[in-house]
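# nightly structure sweep
# worker-07 picked up a monomer target from the shared queue
# config: single-sequence mode, recycle default, output format = structure tokens
# input follows
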Amino acid sequence: MLERGPLKPDGSERRVLVAGATGYLGKFVALEFKRRGYWVRALTRSARRLEEAGPFTAPGIAAEKIDDVFVGEVTKPETLDDLFDGIDLVFSAVGISRQRDGLSFEQVDYQANRNLLDAAQRAGVQKFVYVSMLGEDQIADLAITKAHEKMVADLQASGLDHAIVRPSGYFSDMGAVLDMAKRGRVLLVGDGENHFNPIFGGDLAEVCVDAAEGDAREVEAGGPDNLTQREVAELAFDVLGKPAKITVIPMWLARGCARFIGLLSTQFGDLAEFIVTAGEVDAVAPARGKTTLRSYFEKLA
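# output follows
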């Protein structure tokens, strides 16, 4: 069991590996661990992308802000030699988001994380924190869910101390809604009446580090605003001072489009299927975040 806090009994800093550090959540998490006094190693495919600010307010991480930058690819274990040297704790938010490399959810969201788990066990790491998804039982048949939950099952069976964080949704995805509103029209899948409470990346990073320091094996986390998809779209237009123009895509048409996309690209077809299915299920988690969606939209606008 990992003892709480950033220091070991001998007074030295606990060493954490942040995998997926180039992504929206990973950037916030690396900085939050560092803010709390941990020694931080960021795993990234590109040091340049790590330093650049990401979309939707994800911060850039200059090399001097953390302790070590390790360039490697989690899908290629041969690039990860010495990655775990001295590491006490692993945090992983590795997963497909906006990559265009043609890899599947099975290859990234599962196998890449499994590569990390195997290496962590060999290195004697004390704890592994993994970010999965909320409401997995409602979308169990999707490729992304199967990949995430396969990793969850492996982690639970590993015997390694661990925590699984399940966010209800990300503000970065809400930023895409604001972008549509800026262009004049927001497209919704289904009737737009399903509820969710997405969470700001900085708030979710605090939840993730709390999970690393706590005893809970699973932590669900959402933001303070429980909204429907339609209300999110209306809020975006209100912040921009524009009349709301919302177009609803019927579920039958959206599913047909997802299947067609799948014929062209398995990766984007699976992602489209996830977006469509998410448009008809609720995903409301305990409100652990404090940042409101309105304040976030105002900052982006």
